[in-house]
Amino acid sequence: MFISLYTFHNKSIISKIKSIIAEDPKQTIFVFHHYPPSGLAFATAGQNSGIRKILEKYPDERSLTVNYEDLEKFDPDLADLLITKPDEVIAASQKAIKNIDPLMKEDMELNIRFENLTNNIPLSDLLSKYIGNFVSADGIVRKTDEIRPRIETAKFECRGCMRITEVEQHSGNHITDPSLCSECGGRSFRLLQEESKYIDTQNARMQEPLENLSGGTEPKQMLLVLEDDLVDELNPGDKVRITGTLKTFREERSGKFKNYIYVNHIEPLEQEFEELELSEEDEERILELSRDPHIHDKIINSTAPSIKGHRDVKEAIALQLFGGTVQQLEDGTRLRGDLHILIVGDPGIGKSQILKYVSKLAPRSVYTSGKGTSGAGLTAAAVRDELGGWSLEAGALVLGDQGNVCVDELDKMRSEDRSALHEALEQQTVSIAKAGIMATLNTRCSVLAAANPKFGSFDRYKTLANQIDLPSPILSRFDLIFVIEDKPNVEKDRELAQHILKTHQFSNIEYDIEPELLRKYIAYARKNVHPVLTDEANKVLEEFYVSVRTGGMEEGTPVPITPRQLEATIRLAEASAKLQLKNEVEASDAHRAINLQRRCLEMELLNQEKLPGCYLHRTAPNDVARVEGRTPTSERDKMRVVQEAIKALEEEFVEVPVNILKDHLAENHEMSEEKTDEILRILRSKGIIYEPHHGVVKRLED
Fold first, then answer.
1. What is the pTM of this model?
2. Cα–Cα–Cα angle for 71, 75, 78, nearest 5°?
3. Alpha-carbon dihedral 283, 580, 576, 534, rounded to 10 degrees
4. Cα 675 from chain centroid (whole Å)
């Protein structure tokens, strides 16, 4: 119920309001006062209305939230005045509350906050013409500073007559003194700090949503000022809708003006931004496209179409863009649905171009390169604010929460920086303990990374771990690792040359699905489709896992696959169903995921020794340790053979000559000199053997 009052001191109307409340305690009444000099104000009253509930919990709760749309329906002029003169309207409304509700005490201060503001403006468009206006904007919290007190009402004591004077303060940096004492006319005052009235304040920084950015555009950032009960409500990485007054201040050092939002209301966007605005026509096109029997192939062909070939990699990336289904178990455990993919390949095969394309195609994405990225830049950094305090600033993985993060040149990062990825990839959180700050931030994103071989190009007769400068714990956290070699092939080389020449000649690319429509298709699927496994799909995946594990039952044989690969295959199957906008994962999706997992593992098994037990093609060993960068079973067997040979030769030679050891291993175990040198280096690095003199080796004591 709304009532307009044209005189602030209209006691008869106020009595009428109180009688209405007495008759109907559940009634909420919005009262608008027109009175000079404060202009317009409004208040709400009622036994069980919002204000009464707040007063019962005061001072723990001291903010009244009003829906702007309700205000606009009642009085459009008043709603417009709030947009253009927010400070006056809000200040007058706070005064009006005290005159309406009898429970309001003189020292009670309630904040009036507005939600659902209709003029939501992108941060990039918040320019000088909006200064002084009430605005709303969406964004990601980049950093938050320490909470500090600000003097709201300062008390001063006259040094001459000891009279106390109160002065309202409107700036946190400077204290405004009284001009002169009203009692004695003196101009010298002493600030009574402990008797002054303070309010909590905090600065934060927000940047515009990633889905609003086009490729190569730097995100616009905005300073936020939070006060009273709004402090400590934001954390780096939070996605929020901020409502407040756009203001400006002058920096002391540079003298330049800088905009900021004085925040009035915070609305968390817990799930996702409205990634892209989808019209009814867009949804019809998306649903029609999902019914195409060749939708799977069309999406694969539309993923990085400027790159020729690499169909398996493109299929995996297409599934990654859709992602699996997040599972929240009853015990609080969260099973991630995001897929992590690593592409390891020779230079010049288009890895960086694929990553760049994906970063533009994904509805929300962050691109970074390992050479210029630190661990703090990937996760979160502790930085000093303007006043010397410490605050957290979100890194790429935190900003890419619920999106895609593309990390190029992953192998070029320093080892201590790469260690920051361990928790982020598996648990999808980042735990920070720096500069006295203890925090856990979300990194619920898919990671697409690229790396080069350590020695420039691949050697098929060496393990993956020996050729890539990445530790085993990181390799094991990727669901799929693609090894791509640049091998000469007349037919494929001709096709590639024709494709490159055609692209340069005509400067156009043929798409099965236009990029903008594909972005909308992905956004629609991620938001609305959450497929679950059917019994048929479960049976296919179970049979796959058990049959593969059977090859590693004998003692000493390699372990073909672990539960980590099974979970990756489940996520691939869920993504396949989501790609087709299906609510159930069928057997066909499970088969597609298994086939992709098989082909990926075939690429990773670089060592082509003849060992039994491989489910892939029976001629190559399938050892999951080799895939994850750990020492493969066959390598461990060779190290054991070398150690036993050294032990046996030590009975004849106190210090075993390396040339005699090589002859012994070549004659009895058909081991090449290169392999012997490699294993000796590993044993020396592990501290199992040492070299007392050049050309001889000796075991350390057991």
1. 0.64
2. 85
3. 110
4. 44
